[in-house]
């Protein structure tokens, strides 16, 4: 895989050493929320303007065994966070919230073991999907009671989502590890009307069509690409591609949203760069020209796999500006 997309990488914020940021969401005002999975934390990162890096603020720490996994913004400044281990859906109402004020998330839904919520997305108003990286399936979550409650049922289970794959557990530290994840990243493309997902255990990038009337899967999942060590992803439906983090490979790949296309290419990290160590997730900025060009990525600094020099760096939030106009790959 060779790099063909010029990209500028800027460090936006740093987190304590050994932090393992797992997912993020960019808010409408340009500030960013980040979850650190094994630390069970939610961080707030101020709008990254002026002097960089900015200083993140710890927003919340979940209870023991509630590993923070992913965000869904179901309505403006209403965020849902899925936790793994003690699998719970939590609701954060940040309407009117100002940095420094306490937050009081509420419990919306408890999953039965051995559920392992991971990546998630909004499918339609009041309807979310979440990848279960342990059971190898996608849950459909329907919000009730004005968003204060929810119901869950299996949306799709498929062999391309299975966990394990003969891989050893993922080790966060000497005392903390989790089974190697199956289905991991999850995004819905409203323009293409497909759900896109990655499966870490099987090195797969897949899609499945969505029936617009029932919001149920329409047909079988389709293979898009084989990509090693896939984690989370974001979509550029204008260009017809996905950007996919390859967490332990310190890279971001780009792949077509259509089956039968040419193979994936490198979007960043090939050749290796010290600015991109352990990318876990990716989301577009909300500036007027950010979509498809300016992305934010949390990196773990080498917690899961050290870089070539075997030195751990601080976890960071970085900004990547893709020079699409200079891209010669399409």
Automatic annotation (TrEMBL):
Protein name from the UniProt record: Major royal jelly protein
